[in-house]
């Protein structure tokens, strides 16, 4: 029942064109440092003085070292599905990702729309990742 309600709420979000990277005010991961999820095992806000452009978005980092690490292998550190909600993508649609609802699985960063949605997503691991991987190209080509 909870799953159906959350899915219905997510489906009711306004339509928007799906860009490869979900951005908030032009920032990937809403300005959180993507490398910190791996090194600090926590979401850490980046700083404007340590920024880089990649994938059509600006990315902020807590340090010059993290920025260099990201630029050496951006696909390794950037969130899967461009930072859109992993649960939503697994269901064939896009929804905003929340950098505080995250998990690293098999060396890849995934974000979800909220911590409640993340709980649902985690209950379906690893199948939900396989479904998301399969659905992502179609979600990217469409809009809600």
Short recap of the structure:
The chain is α+β, with helices and mostly antiparallel strands and 144 residues long. The protein folds into two domains: 1-19 and 81-144, no CATH class; 22-77, no CATH class.
Structural features:
39% helix; globular; two-stranded antiparallel sheet; two-stranded antiparallel ribbon; alpha+beta; 2 domains; 7 helices; 144 residues
Q: What is the percentage of strand-forming residues?
A: 15-25%
The span between the termini is: 23 Å
Report the uncertain regions.
7-15
Q: How confident is the prediction overall: mean pLDDT? A: 91
Describe the structure.
The chain is α+β, with helices and mostly antiparallel strands. It folds into 2 domains: 1-19 and 81-144, no CATH class; 22-77, no CATH class. Helices cover 39% and strands 21% of the residues. Strands 1-2 form a two-stranded antiparallel ribbon. The protein has a two-stranded antiparallel ribbon with strand order 3-4. It has a two-stranded antiparallel ribbon with strand order 5-6. The longest helix is centred in the last third of the chain and has 15 residues, at 127-141.
């Amino acid at each position: 029942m909870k799953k159906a309600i959350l899915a219905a709420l997510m489906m009711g979000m306004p339509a928007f064109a799906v860009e490869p990277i979900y951005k908030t005010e032009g920032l990937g991961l809403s300005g959180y440092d993507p490398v910190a999820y791996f090194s600090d095992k926590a979401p850490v806000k980046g700083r404007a003085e340590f920024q880089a452009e990649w994938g059509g978005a600006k990315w902020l980092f807590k340090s010059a070292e993290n920025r260099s690490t990201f630029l050496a292998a951006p696909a390794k550190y950037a969130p899967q599905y461009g930072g859109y909600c992993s649960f939503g993508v697994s269901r064939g649609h896009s929804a905003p990702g929340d950098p505080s609802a995250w998990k690293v699985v098999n060396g890849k960063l995934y974000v979800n729309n909220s911590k409640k949605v993340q709980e649902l997503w985690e209950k379906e691991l690893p199948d939900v990742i396989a479904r998301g991987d399969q659905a992502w190209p179609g979600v990217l080509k469409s809009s809600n």
